Amino acid sequence: MAVREGGTVPAAALLAMFREIVAHNRAGGWRAVKRTASTSTSPDRTGPQPPAERPSLYEFAGGDAAFVALATAHHARCLQACTRATERWAISANGSWPA
Fold first, then answer.
1. Distance CA 68, CA 12 (A)
2. Is residue 43 part of a domain?
3. Which of 20, 51, 64, 85 has its CA 20 to 30 A from that of 28?
4. Alpha carbon distances (Å) from 60 to 20, 25, 33, 48
5. From the CB of residue 51, how many other CB atoms can be counted at a distance below 10 Å?
């Protein structure tokens, strides 16, 4: 997923991606999901199951709303770092501060 400077974070796509990651983690991680999918020959094999009464770390941390806030803040910090790196490059290229 790519977001350009000045763009908005596609919240729906980002949430869908992280929901899939959370589901894989609940099933024992991507290796377990891959192993279960490729070696499951028994119809009663369901793989590891998470405890039903405990919330996931994702839910405990605030779920979708907390994740969107985190992703938005991270995106802003990345853009700031890009701007600083571009300014440093401009200074080193011509020996003066950018206008």
1. 9
2. no
3. 64
4. 17, 15, 23, 21
5. 7
Pull the structure tokens for residue 47.
């793989």
Do the beta carbons of residue 47 and residue 32 sit within 8 Å? yes
- For residue 46, being part of any structural domain is answered with no
**pLDDT of 43 over the 80 cut:** no
Confidence of residue 84 (pLDDT cuts 50, 70, 90): confident
Q: How many Å apart are CA 4 and CA 25, to the nearest integer?
A: 29
pTM of structure: 0.37
51 phi and psi angles, rounded to 5 deg: -65, 130
Q: How many domains does the chain have?
A: 1
The answer as to whether 23 is a domain residue is yes
pLDDT at 50: 56
DSSP string, 49-84: ---TTSPPHHHHTTHHHHHHHHHHHHHHHHHHHHHH
